[in-house]
Each structure stands twice: as C-alpha cells, then as structure tokens.
Amino acid sequence: MSRLIMISNRVQLPSSGGNQGGLAVALQAALRDKGGIWFGWSGETTEQFTGEIHYREANGVTTATIDLEQQDVDEYYDGFANRTLWPLFHYRIDLTEFERDFNSGYARVNRRFAETVGPLIEADDLVWVHDYHMIPLGAELREQGCANRIGFFLHIPWPPADMLLSLPSHRELVEALFAYDVVGFQTQDWLDSFLHYVERQLGGTIAEDGTVTVGERSVRVFADPIGIETASFEEAAAAAPARHAQERMYMSATGRTLIVGVDRLDYSKGLEERFLGFERFLSLHPDFRGLVYMLQIAPPSRENVETYRAIRAGLDALSGRINGEYSDMDYVPIRYVNKGFARDVLAGIYRAARICLVTPLRDGMNLVAKEYVAAQDPADPGVLILSSFAGAAAQLKDALLVNPYSPEEIADAIAQALAMPRAERVARWEKMIDIVRREDVTWWCNRFLDMLEREPAPRAPLHQLG
C-alpha cells in the first residue's frame, strides 16, 4: 500500500491533553490510517534557511518540520497567506492587502517546501497538499521532477470569480492548481465558484466526471466535505473528563441555560454579529434576562497581524458594553474567554449547552458544528444554530439556519431553540448525527484518496495552459 505524504503549513503532533483544531485532528486520523509523514513548518524561525528537517513521532504519527526565516514568515505567512488570501477567500476584499513582497515570499516558501520535501517522497507515495498556504506547491514539486500522484484540498471557501479578479496574480494562482491530479473543495458552492472562474477566464471545459480541461492540461475536481472523528468524539463526550466539565458548567450556571460559541478569534467567525444578535435577544425577551447566558470561547490567533488585534479590542469593548447594560449583581450575560480548552473538556461544555451558536460570516466547513452534534445526549440533545454561509450548512440542514448578518434572525433562532419541544430536538438531532457519523473524517479521507488513486487525467506542462 502506498504511503501518504501529507503537507500543510503547520504540523501538530497528537496530544490527549492539548488544544487541537479540527483540521489537525482530521489529518492525524488520516495519517494513522494510511501511514507516512506529515511535513510542514515548525512554527519556529531561523537566521538562515538550511532545509534541516526535524523529525518527531507520537501516537503513530511521524512529523517532519522545517524552520523558516523571519522574512519568510512576514511575507509568506503573515503577508500573502493571512493578509491577502485569507480575507479575499472569505469575501473580505475590504481587508485584503496586495503587496508584491507578499507574493514573492509566498512563491519562495513554496519552492523551499518543494526542495526540502521532494527527497522524502518515494516512487509509490501519494502526496496530499493542504490549504491556501500551499497552492503553488504542486507546480514546484513538478519542477523538482516529482511524477507522483499529487492532490490538493482547500479547507476554506473559494471566492466568486469577480472577487478573485481583484488579486493581481489570480491567473497564476489558478493555473498552479492544474499541476495537481485532484483538487478537492469543501462544498459544491465553492467548487462552482472555481469552475465559473475557469470557464470565464481560462476558457476551460468541464466533463461529467469532474475533469476540468484548459488547453492540454486536465485536473479532476470534486466536493468532499471534511468530517470529524465522530466515534471517538462521542466516546470523549461520555468519558470522565467531559462529565467533569459538564458538571462544572451546571454548577457555575446555577440553574441558568447555557448558550455556547467556540471559535478561533477571527473576523470570518462573525463574533461581533453574534454578540449583537444575543443582545437583540435580551432586548426583545426581557423575561429571559438572568435565565440565559452565553459562553464564548475565542482563543486568539495571528496576534502580530493588526486586523486581529483590532478584532480582540472591539470584542472586549462590545462584550463589556452588553454586560454593563444587562448584568445584575448575580448575573453576567456574556462570559467571554480568550483561551482554548482540551478536546475532551470541550465535549463536556458542548453537552452542557442547550444551544450552540455557530454563525460565521463565511466558513469553508466549520467542524465545531459537527462536534457539538456528536457531543449531545441522545435523550435530551441541544439545538444547533448554524450560519447559512458555513460549509456545514449544506449537510446539517436540520440545524436552525440563520443569516449571521441579521441580529433579528439570530435572536429569533435563540427564542425558537429555547422553546423547542424535546421531541423536535431529538428528531432534528437524529438526522444530523446520522450524517456526522456516516460522513466522518475517514469517509472524507477515503473519498479523496480513492479519487487520487484513479487513473490520472492528462498532464501537460503548465506553460501549455490556455
């Protein structure tokens, strides 16, 4: 069986007690199942890039990491990845920064990745590249002579064609995807946006089997929504650490109903809009003041990017204003926590919450929604309120779907969730948990790798595109 060479910006070893995002957990599960190496940036800097590889192993996962120069981090990671592609791909062109140095740094780091990981790839290995940081990596590997099957998966949305055109290097970026054999997207919506660009800007054609052809080069594309390790998450929700966390939440709530939100601190997550929606609920339903509170867990990220420092300051001020307006001597409506929690503790918090608010303004998938569903008590489940603009909404249609930009819709959904009879909650949950169990991380991984192992589409040099 072929090994799997997984490549992403950051690498994280498995940890039973640490904070791990949904992507890290998903990739570790795939790698344990297939065997191989997870390659990426260590998160550390060095005065001069040498290509030295640091190997580590834990719980059946081998990682290989490299250090980058500070200029690499500034231009590739903080620059092109997080100040250009991330806001643009999340429809925030107003926050997008276009700098030539960012673009050159992005190309340089992808080339360094290719030159370093290339010698680790054996003849029969499958190579799986992840996310927007690494879009040019396939083309760089081809330049190094890599003839392996290479797949790419985009974990974030793909922007509409008209929005992508604002990126000066848009054509170069899209053409780089034709170095891959397979490209996967989270949802059909994001895939359709990509296909629209290819047809409109590159004159591409699309076959019924998902093969996209431009000039003499073809790539297979498809929608493959990522899942979670559902079985292990359900087990974690019933285990002692989760039960302890659940009891702590019940004790601290003193009989009040918990609404929970768990998000990385990012403008795409709609946290300000969520706070305003909860404020609107308290305003419209004064009888619930003192009876319902919201716990927002929002660990900070990318704190060296000014936009993110501004988000934190804004949410600090907004939560303070709402608490000042609606608090009492024994009641605070919003508990706003800027730290993360271990996965098993989160499972207990999810289970204690009658409502989970997952209301991003735009999200590739959002695994918190699926984790919340998996953590519920089958006999008395809570209610998921989910943004229509999250990728998960395409699968979890029995959540209460809302427009996250509308405080009224969020407020109305909270009121509906609080009044929802148990029978309806159970019925909605049963439909969602069936999807979360069936379309889990193993299903996602197997679908992608099955596609990658198929007969390759014709591959011509990239310069023959168009």
Estimate nothing, just give the exact number of structural domains: 2
CATH topology of the largest domain: Rossmann fold
Relative helix content: 40-55%
Number of strands: 16
What is the CA-CA span between the terminal residues? Answer: 36 Å
Widest sheet: strand order? 3-4-2-1-5-6-7-10-9-8
The helix-and-strand class reads alpha/beta
How would you describe this structure in keywords?
single chain, about 475 residues, alpha/beta, Rossmann fold, 2 domains, ten-stranded mixed sheet, six-stranded parallel sheet
Walk me through the structure:
Helix content is 44%, strand content 18%. The protein has 466 residues and is of the alpha/beta class. It has two domains: 4-227 and 443-464, Glycogen Phosphorylase B (Rossmann fold, 3-Layer(aba) Sandwich), CATH 3.40.50; 230-437, 3-Layer(aba) Sandwich (Rossmann fold). A ten-stranded mixed sheet has the order 3-4-2-1-5-6-7-10-9-8, sandwiched between helices. A six-stranded parallel sheet has the order 13-12-11-14-15-16, sandwiched between helices. Strand 8 (205-206) and strand 9 form a beta hairpin. The longest helix is centred in the last third of the chain and has 21 residues, at 306-326. The radius of gyration is 22 Å and the shape is globular. It starts with a strand and ends in a 14-residue tail after the last helix.
